[in-house]
Write a structure and sequence with these properties.
alpha/beta, Rossmann fold, globular, about 450 residues
């Protein structure tokens, strides 16, 4: 099943902008970037000219020879079967991180040929730009200066795996309509609706948001097929380490990646380097950790002991947690059977809690919230899973995998800081109690829709 992605609407918004810049779509591998851009092109343009720098290595030579857009377009027409016509053809540069000259050329499309519509996509763009970035000073030669990143000449759009909202729209659009019609007023959902949504959420937790396993779940392909999808994806990610990383860093990246399930299985999920390898030191693994973050494979959130604005000012850079781009990939890494997720109750409580947190984090990022922080009371006496910023307000969020909501940390935070609103995501129905609002966890993707009512 082809999954309709919300990013198509954002691409429409980009196209409707009169003074639009070339657009760079960023995100991890295997989340559907290429499909989304090409599908958008098919819907909104007469022609789509795709240039993939991973598949056609010879394309790099075209961009190294000239910065003149007219000449460049003439050369590119030799590599496509469609005409390149301003206003009618979408130029799509895929895997652009493999060609720094093409990345730099986006500047000249902006300056010299703004009538052409250009979108670029890159899975490892953050890694590539950091690795290739050089300090340009008075002694630098012209080529070095020209190959710097086109700062201010491009727009960015971040893409994430398929959200539960996108999944539900494909799985049961009527159920989604019935639920959305009842969101205003923060009234509890009817029990039959709540139970059906819970079932869909558990199924989504099993397949996750990577398009292949997600599509197979929607097609009822069977659990064995979905498990094989996830296993294949996990292995392909590890192969990427060997293809796109300096050989000396490969073992460390792999060690960090493979340690994440055990890091998140502990009650205190703070990332600990000694859990990667006995005797491991932070300075030995920092670049490997950065690579995983920049590639979009993992999310890193920092601790703060003082929830005030700006939150980045109060970050503890030595205390952070690491989550994976997708909760089902995390489950596959841990070799956790689907039955453990589908079964109600506190079985594997800590790890199911980690999967729930991973889900909520991915949902917050996909909705456009800045990377959250988490809060701990000095001495780790209490902890709140996420702090998000909404305007000038900091909202604490607690995540519970099931309907057991016992815990003192949220009460400690409330006592200490008296926030206007607190959010808890669990498998309990909508309920407001003073400044605390409980939402079913499957409603996390609708936070932006209801936040004005809180």
């Amino acid at each position: 099943m082809v999954i309709e992605r919300d990013i198509l609407k954002k691409l429409d918004e980009w196209k409707s902008t009169a003074d639009r810049k070339p657009l760079i779509v960023q995100g991890a591998r295997q989340i559907g970037k290429s499909w989304a851009v090409e599908e958008f092109g098919r819907r909104r343009f007469k022609h789509v000219a795709v240039f993939n720098f991973d598949k056609k290595k010879e394309l790099k030579g075209v961009f190294s020879q000239t910065k003149d857009i007219k000449r460049l377009l003439g050369e590119l027409e030799l590599y496509t079967t469609v005409p390149i016509i301003a206003g009618e053809t979408l130029l799509f540069f895929d895997e652009i991180q493999d060609c720094k000259e093409a990345l730099n050329t986006l500047k000249y499309f902006r300056e010299d040929a703004p009538e052409y519509d250009v979108i670029a996509a890159g899975s490892l763009l953050g890694v590539a730009t950091k690795r290739k970035k050089k300090k340009v000073d008075d002694d630098s030669d012209e080529d070095e200066a020209e190959n710097t990143f086109p700062v201010g000449k491009v727009s960015f759009l971040d893409m994430y795996p398929v959200t539960f909202r996108e999944y539900l729209r494909m799985a049961n659009p009527r159920l989604m309509e019935q639920m959305e019609a009842r969101l205003t007023g923060l009234e509890p959902l009817p029990e039959i609706l709540f139970n059906q949504l819970t079932e869909q959420y558990r199924r989504y937790q099993v397949c996750g948001g990577l398009p292949k396993p997600c599509s197979d779940m929607l097609d009822n392909a069977g659990m064995a097929v979905i498990e094989q999808d996830l296993d294949d994806l996990r292995k392909s990610y590890e192969l990427d380490f060997t293809k796109h990383v300096d050989s000396k860093d490969i073992p460390r990246i792999r060690e960090i990646w493979r340690s994440i399930p055990s890091q998140l299985s502990r009650e205190n999920k703070k990332f600990v380097f000694r859990a990667v390898r006995e005797g491991a030191r932070a300075r030995e693994y920092e670049s490997a950790l950065d690579w995983l973050v920049l590639s979009g494979m993992i999310y890193r959130i920092y601790c703060t002991e003082k929830p005030e604005l700006p939150m980045k000012h109060y970050e503890d850079l030595t205390a952070f947690k690491v989550y994976v781009l997708d909760q089902a990939v995390l489950r596959s890494m841990a070799e956790l059977p689907a039955e453990a997720v589908l079964t109600k109750g506190d079985i594997l409580k800590e790890f199911k809690g980690a999967m729930a947190e991973n889900f909520v984090l991915g949902s917050l990022l996909a909705q456009g919230f800045k990377t959250p922080h988490y809060w701990t009371l000095q001495g780790n006496k209490a902890e709140v899973d996420f702090l998000i910023q909404n305007g000038l307000e900091i909202i604490p969020i607690e995540v519970k995998a099931e309907d057991n909501v016992n815990g003192k940390s949220f009460a400690e935070y409330n006592k200490k800081y008296e926030p206007r609103i607190r959010l808890r995501y669990s498998l309990r129905n909508i309920k407001r109690n003073g400044n605390m609002v409980n939402f079913p966890i499957f409603l996390c993707d609708w936070l932006k829709d209801v936040i004005s009512e809180l």
